[in-house]
Design goal:
Blueprint (H helix, E strand, L loop, with lengths): L2 E11 L2 H30 L7 H15 L11 H19 L18 E4 L12 E4 L3 E5 L13 E10 L2 E11 L11 E5 L3 E5 L4 E3 L5 H26 L5 H35 L4 E5 L3 H4 L6 H7 L1 H15 L2 E5 L25 E3 L5 E3 H10 L5 E2 L1
Helix pairs in contact: 1-3, 2-3, 4-5, 5-8
Length: about 375
C-alpha cells in the first residue's frame, strides 16, 4: 500500500529538566544559525568563497571548536538539531541567490521561531503511545491531547519532528507515515465561497459564516490585550528614563502579552478549522474560491488590520489540504474575475458597483445580497485553475 507523510501538532507537558534541555537546544540552534550567517558574510567581505552548510558543519566540528574550547557547549545538545539549523541557513542563502527572497535575517531571542529538530535514527526512537511520545535526547514526554498523534502500536511510524515554544507553552510537531486510503468521488453539487470582511465566508448553498472578530469573546480579549500592551510600554519607557523597573517584571508582562496574542490566534484558527470541516462535511464535488490579492489589500491602511485578522491565506491552505484528503476539487478563479459585479441572472456586469453597495440590483430586476451573488457566480465559473 502506498504511504503518505502527514504532520500532527499538539501541546506537550515536559518536566522541568526537559524544559531546560529544550530551551538550551533551541538557544544553541539560534546561535549556530546566526554564526553561519555571520561567517559567510565575513567570507564575502574578504573576497573568499561561500561556505555551504555541509562544509560549515565540518569546519565547525573539526577546526573551530577544537581551537575555541569556550564554545564546546555547542556539542552538549542534539547534533541533529544543530545540523538542521545550519541546513536552514544554507536554504535561506540559496533562496537569496536565486532571487526568491531577501537576505537571510538573524534570529532574535524571544522573537524568532526557532525549533528543536529530531529524527528517527533507531527503532527505539520516536515511539508514540496514547498519552506520551519518545523524543530523542528528551526521552518520554507527556502529551496534553491524548490520542491525537497516531500510535506506534497501530503500525504508524514517526519519521521526524520538531519541538517549539510559543508564549511559554511547548508543542511537538510529528511527521507520521500513514497509509494512502482510496477516496470515493463526491456526486453532490459544487459550492462557491466568497470571502469577505463583513462576514468571513458566504457559501452558495446559503450558509453564512460570521466574522469571528466581531464576537464578544474576541473583543473582550483585544480590550484586555490593549491594556496589557500599554502596561508593557510604560515599563519600557520607565527603563529608558532610568527609573526603577526590574527586567524580570518586564519579562513577566511580556509573557502576559504573548499569551493573550496566542489565545486570540488560537480562537481564530479554531474557527477556521471548524468552518472548513463544516463545508467539507457536505461532500461537494468541487469548491470554488477566488484568488485574492491579500498583499495588495493589506496596503490599504483602513482595511489592513481587518484583512490580517481574517487569515485568508491560512483558510485557503487548510481548505486545499482538506479537499485533497476528501477527494474534492478545489477550483481557484482568477483575481480579476468580476464575481461581485456580475449578475447571476442575466450575466451583465455592473461596472459602477461600489464597496458600500451591499445589495446587488440589476436592470433586469434581479435583486440579491452582494456577497451571495458573488458566491453563486464563483460556483458557476467556467474559467478556473485547479489548486
Amino acid at each position: 500500500m502506498k504511504k503518505l507523510l502527514k504532520s500532527f501538532k499538539t501541546e506537550i507537558n515536559p518536566t522541568l529538566e526537559q524544559k531546560t534541555k529544550i530551551n538550551k537546544t533551541i538557544g544553541t540552534c539560534r546561535y549556530v544559525y546566526n554564526f553561519y550567517l555571520t561567517h559567510n558574510k565575513e567570507l564575502h567581505d574578504t573576497g573568499q568563497k561561500f561556505m555551504s552548510g555541509k562544509s560549515f558543519s565540518v569546519w565547525l566540528n573539526n577546526e573551530y571548536l577544537l581551537n575555541n574550547s569556550d564554545y564546546l557547549w555547542i556539542k552538549e545538545v542534539s547534533s541533529k538539531s544543530v545540523k538542521k539549523s545550519i541546513e536552514d541557513g544554507c536554504v535561506a542563502f540559496t533562496r537569496f541567490f536565486k532571487g526568491q527572497s531577501k537576505f537571510p535575517k538573524f534570529k532574535k531571542k524571544g522573537k524568532s521561531d526557532v525549533k528543536m529538530y529530531f529524527v528517527k535514527n533507531n527503532p527505539k526512537d520516536c515511539l508514540c503511545e496514547r498519552h506520551r511520545i519518545n523524543i530523542p535526547t528528551l526521552g518520554w514526554v507527556r502529551l496534553k491531547e491524548k490520542g491525537y498523534i497516531p500510535t506506534t502500536k497501530d503500525g504508524y511510524v514517526i519519521k521526524s519532528g520538531t519541538v517549539s515554544i510559543k508564549a511559554g507553552r511547548y508543542y511537538v510537531s510529528a511527521l507520521v507515515e500513514i497509509p494512502d486510503t482510496e477516496i470515493t468521488n463526491n456526486a453532490n453539487e459544487g459550492i462557491g465561497i466568497d470571502l469577505g470582511l463583513k462576514d468571513f465566508a458566504i457559501a452558495s448553498n446559503g450558509k453564512i459564516y460570521k466574522n469571528i472578530n466581531k464576537s464578544v469573546r474576541i473583543k473582550k480579549l483585544e480590550k484586555q490585550l490593549r491594556r496589557e500592551q500599554r502596561c508593557l510600554s510604560r515599563k519600557y519607557e520607565n527603563l529608558k528614563k532610568g527609573e526603577s523597573t526590574q527586567r524580570a517584571n518586564i519579562q513577566k508582562q511580556k509573557l502576559k502579552v504573548q499569551k493573550l496574542h496566542h489565545r486570540i490566534d488560537n480562537i481564530r484558527t479554531d474557527y477556521i478549522n471548524k468552518t472548513i470541516a463544516e463545508i467539507v462535511k457536505t461532500k461537494p464535488s468541487y469548491i470554488t474560491i477566488e484568488d485574492l490579492n491579500v498583499s495588495g489589500i493589506m496596503k490599504n491602511r483602513h482595511l489592513s488590520k481587518a484583512v490580517a485578522s481574517q487569515k485568508f491565506h491560512e483558510f485557503r491552505t487548510k481548505l486545499k489540504i482538506k479537499c485533497d484528503d476528501n477527494g474534492i476539487k478545489l477550483r481557484v478563479v482568477d483575481r480579476f474575475y468580476p464575481s461581485s459585479k456580475l449578475c447571476h441572472c442575466c450575466g451583465s456586469i455592473k461596472k459602477d458597483l461600489k464597496l458600500s453597495d451591499r445589495i446587488y440590483k440589476c436592470e433586469c430586476g434581479y435583486v440579491e445580497d452582494r456577497d451571495f451573488n458573488a458566491s453563486l457566480n464563483l460556483r458557476d465559473a467556467v474559467t478556473y485553475n485547479i489548486a
